Amino acid sequence: MLVERGPQVMNVELVSDAYAIAANYLRRSGAIPDSLVTNERLLEIIIRLLQQGEFNKLRLANKAIARFEAEPEARAVA
Fold first, then answer.
1. What is the Cα–Cα distance from 54 to 36, expressed in whole angstroms?
2. R_g of the chain computed on alpha carbons
3. CA of 18: how far to CAs of 51, 54, 67, 75, in Å?
4. N or C of the chain: less Cβ packing under 10 Å?
5. What is the pLDDT of residue 2?
6. What is the residue-wise DSSP string for 6-73?
């Protein structure tokens, strides 16, 4: 499903799949708590990667995991 987000169109299924893959890995590794709450920082990283032109869900998830683990939390929020 495509959803308009401001002037952009987002592929919700792609974002959802990539988020599920990345969040599952990060939960198992202990980097994020095991809860049903969406991790906004991870979601923002995935959306930024999508906006930069990454459309493969596995690469999107892997790059998001790498950035999530590499970026200090304070810098990721800014």
1. 26
2. 12
3. 14, 11, 14, 22
4. C
5. 52
6. TTEEEEHHHHHHHHHHHHHHHHHHTSS-SSSS--HHHHHHHHHHHHTT---HHHHHHHHHHHHHHS-H
Tens digit of pLDDT for each residue in 4-17?
555 455 689 999 99
Token pair for residue 19? 């988020």
**27-73 confidence digits (pLDDT tens):** 999 999 998 899 999 999 999 999 999 999 999 999 999 999 998 77
Which helix H or strand E contains 5, and what residues bound it? strand 2-5
- DSSP class of 6: T
Read off the pTM.
Answer: 0.80
Task: Decide: 65 and 57 in contact? Cβ < 8 Å.
Answer: no
Q: Supply 1's token pair.
A: 């499903």
